[in-house]
Design brief:
186 residues; alpha+beta; nine-stranded antiparallel β-sheet
Length: 186
Protein backbone atom coordinates (compact mmCIF):
# COMPACT_ATOMS: atom_id res chain seq x y z
CA UNK A 1 0.00 0.00 0.00
CA UNK A 2 2.76 2.46 0.99
CA UNK A 3 4.61 2.11 -2.32
CA UNK A 4 1.35 2.76 -4.17
CA UNK A 5 0.67 5.93 -2.17
CA UNK A 6 4.22 7.17 -2.76
CA UNK A 7 3.77 6.43 -6.47
CA UNK A 8 0.52 8.42 -6.60
CA UNK A 9 2.11 11.37 -4.80
CA UNK A 10 5.19 11.40 -7.05
CA UNK A 11 3.05 11.10 -10.18
CA UNK A 12 0.82 13.97 -9.01
CA UNK A 13 3.84 16.15 -8.23
CA UNK A 14 5.50 15.37 -11.55
CA UNK A 15 2.34 16.26 -13.50
CA UNK A 16 1.68 19.45 -11.53
CA UNK A 17 5.28 20.68 -11.70
CA UNK A 18 5.15 20.05 -15.45
CA UNK A 19 2.18 22.43 -15.57
CA UNK A 20 4.06 25.05 -13.56
CA UNK A 21 2.32 24.53 -10.20
CA UNK A 22 3.12 22.81 -6.92
CA UNK A 23 0.33 20.56 -5.66
CA UNK A 24 -1.33 21.63 -2.46
CA UNK A 25 -0.82 19.55 0.68
CA UNK A 26 -2.62 16.24 0.45
CA UNK A 27 -4.21 13.98 3.12
CA UNK A 28 -4.83 10.27 2.54
CA UNK A 29 -6.71 8.75 5.50
CA UNK A 30 -6.88 4.98 5.92
CA UNK A 31 -9.33 2.85 7.90
CA UNK A 32 -8.12 -0.71 8.66
CA UNK A 33 -5.65 -0.44 5.77
CA UNK A 34 -8.26 0.77 3.26
CA UNK A 35 -7.78 4.14 1.61
CA UNK A 36 -10.68 6.51 2.31
CA UNK A 37 -9.70 8.91 -0.45
CA UNK A 38 -7.54 11.88 -1.37
CA UNK A 39 -8.12 15.32 0.13
CA UNK A 40 -6.29 18.43 -1.08
CA UNK A 41 -6.18 21.53 1.09
CA UNK A 42 -8.55 24.38 0.25
CA UNK A 43 -7.31 27.64 -1.29
CA UNK A 44 -5.83 29.80 1.44
CA UNK A 45 -4.17 33.13 2.14
CA UNK A 46 -0.55 33.26 3.28
CA UNK A 47 -0.11 33.09 7.05
CA UNK A 48 -2.67 31.99 9.65
CA UNK A 49 -5.21 30.94 7.03
CA UNK A 50 -2.67 28.55 5.48
CA UNK A 51 -1.82 27.11 8.91
CA UNK A 52 -5.52 26.54 9.64
CA UNK A 53 -6.33 25.17 6.18
CA UNK A 54 -3.60 22.55 6.38
CA UNK A 55 -4.40 21.56 9.97
CA UNK A 56 -8.10 21.19 9.06
CA UNK A 57 -7.23 18.36 6.66
CA UNK A 58 -7.50 16.27 9.83
CA UNK A 59 -11.29 16.70 9.89
CA UNK A 60 -11.87 14.11 7.16
CA UNK A 61 -9.62 11.56 8.86
CA UNK A 62 -11.24 12.13 12.25
CA UNK A 63 -14.74 11.88 10.80
CA UNK A 64 -13.86 8.64 8.99
CA UNK A 65 -12.38 7.14 12.16
CA UNK A 66 -9.01 6.74 10.43
CA UNK A 67 -6.43 4.61 12.17
CA UNK A 68 -3.64 5.78 9.84
CA UNK A 69 -3.05 8.88 7.75
CA UNK A 70 -0.59 9.86 5.08
CA UNK A 71 0.11 13.53 4.43
CA UNK A 72 2.15 14.83 1.52
CA UNK A 73 3.54 18.35 1.08
CA UNK A 74 6.38 20.27 -0.51
CA UNK A 75 8.93 21.74 1.91
CA UNK A 76 9.35 25.23 0.47
CA UNK A 77 5.70 25.62 -0.54
CA UNK A 78 4.33 24.98 2.97
CA UNK A 79 7.06 27.05 4.63
CA UNK A 80 6.30 30.01 2.37
CA UNK A 81 2.51 29.69 2.69
CA UNK A 82 2.68 29.43 6.48
CA UNK A 83 5.46 32.01 6.91
CA UNK A 84 7.70 29.44 8.58
CA UNK A 85 11.41 28.73 8.14
CA UNK A 86 12.32 26.01 5.64
CA UNK A 87 13.08 22.82 7.58
CA UNK A 88 14.75 19.96 5.73
CA UNK A 89 15.73 19.56 2.11
CA UNK A 90 14.13 21.80 -0.51
CA UNK A 91 12.76 21.23 -3.00
CA UNK A 92 11.41 18.07 -1.46
CA UNK A 93 8.22 16.04 -1.45
CA UNK A 94 7.59 15.05 2.16
CA UNK A 95 5.27 12.26 3.21
CA UNK A 96 4.41 11.27 6.73
CA UNK A 97 2.78 7.98 7.65
CA UNK A 98 1.10 8.36 11.04
CA UNK A 99 -1.09 6.43 13.44
CA UNK A 100 -2.14 7.19 17.02
CA UNK A 101 1.15 5.73 18.27
CA UNK A 102 3.50 7.92 16.25
CA UNK A 103 4.72 8.82 12.79
CA UNK A 104 7.48 8.21 10.28
CA UNK A 105 8.67 11.03 8.01
CA UNK A 106 9.74 10.12 4.49
CA UNK A 107 11.49 12.71 2.32
CA UNK A 108 11.88 12.59 -1.45
CA UNK A 109 14.21 15.42 -2.49
CA UNK A 110 14.43 16.43 -6.09
CA UNK A 111 16.15 18.94 -8.32
CA UNK A 112 14.17 20.88 -10.87
CA UNK A 113 14.88 20.72 -14.59
CA UNK A 114 13.23 23.66 -16.34
CA UNK A 115 11.22 22.49 -19.35
CA UNK A 116 9.81 25.84 -20.45
CA UNK A 117 8.59 29.25 -19.25
CA UNK A 118 5.22 30.83 -19.88
CA UNK A 119 5.01 34.46 -21.08
CA UNK A 120 4.09 35.33 -17.45
CA UNK A 121 7.35 33.78 -16.26
CA UNK A 122 5.89 30.59 -14.75
CA UNK A 123 8.36 27.73 -15.09
CA UNK A 124 7.30 24.28 -16.15
CA UNK A 125 9.72 21.86 -14.49
CA UNK A 126 10.44 18.16 -14.32
CA UNK A 127 11.56 16.77 -10.97
CA UNK A 128 14.75 14.77 -11.00
CA UNK A 129 14.18 12.56 -7.95
CA UNK A 130 17.35 12.27 -5.88
CA UNK A 131 18.26 9.55 -3.42
CA UNK A 132 15.84 9.62 -0.51
CA UNK A 133 17.28 9.72 3.00
CA UNK A 134 16.32 6.95 5.41
CA UNK A 135 12.81 7.19 6.88
CA UNK A 136 12.76 9.15 10.14
CA UNK A 137 10.60 7.68 12.92
CA UNK A 138 9.32 10.65 14.92
CA UNK A 139 10.94 13.05 12.40
CA UNK A 140 10.36 16.78 12.84
CA UNK A 141 7.11 17.98 11.27
CA UNK A 142 6.27 21.58 10.47
CA UNK A 143 3.58 23.05 12.70
CA UNK A 144 0.50 22.68 10.44
CA UNK A 145 1.41 19.11 9.44
CA UNK A 146 2.01 18.20 13.09
CA UNK A 147 -1.43 19.61 13.96
CA UNK A 148 -3.08 17.71 11.11
CA UNK A 149 -1.49 14.46 12.30
CA UNK A 150 -2.54 15.01 15.91
CA UNK A 151 -6.12 16.05 15.15
CA UNK A 152 -6.62 13.17 12.69
CA UNK A 153 -7.09 10.79 15.60
CA UNK A 154 -9.35 13.01 17.70
CA UNK A 155 -12.96 11.93 17.32
CA UNK A 156 -15.31 14.50 15.84
CA UNK A 157 -18.56 14.74 17.76
CA UNK A 158 -21.35 15.88 15.46
CA UNK A 159 -25.02 15.58 16.29
CA UNK A 160 -25.82 14.15 12.86
CA UNK A 161 -26.78 10.65 11.64
CA UNK A 162 -23.88 10.71 9.13
CA UNK A 163 -20.95 12.67 10.62
CA UNK A 164 -18.56 11.51 7.87
CA UNK A 165 -20.94 12.52 5.07
CA UNK A 166 -21.66 15.94 6.56
CA UNK A 167 -17.92 16.54 7.13
CA UNK A 168 -17.22 15.77 3.47
CA UNK A 169 -19.96 18.18 2.35
CA UNK A 170 -18.78 20.96 4.69
CA UNK A 171 -15.16 20.56 3.64
CA UNK A 172 -16.07 20.62 -0.05
CA UNK A 173 -18.11 23.78 0.54
CA UNK A 174 -14.99 25.32 2.13
CA UNK A 175 -13.00 24.52 -1.03
CA UNK A 176 -11.22 21.29 -0.12
CA UNK A 177 -10.95 18.96 -3.12
CA UNK A 178 -12.05 15.50 -2.06
CA UNK A 179 -11.91 12.29 -4.07
CA UNK A 180 -13.31 9.35 -2.10
CA UNK A 181 -12.72 5.71 -2.96
CA UNK A 182 -15.78 3.65 -3.89
CA UNK A 183 -16.00 2.07 -0.44
CA UNK A 184 -16.38 5.50 1.19
CA UNK A 185 -18.26 7.42 -1.52
CA UNK A 186 -21.68 8.61 -0.45
Amino acid sequence: MWDGLVGVAKKTYTASLGEGTVPRPLMMPLVRGELVGLVWVRPFKVGQDALAGIAELADIAAAAGADEVVLAWETHDVATACELPVVGPAPCLNMVLANPGGHVLHQFPYSEQILSRSPEGRASVAPDWRTAPAPQPGGELVRPIHAAVNFSFTAIELDHPDPFGVTVVLMEEDGYRISLTKAFAR
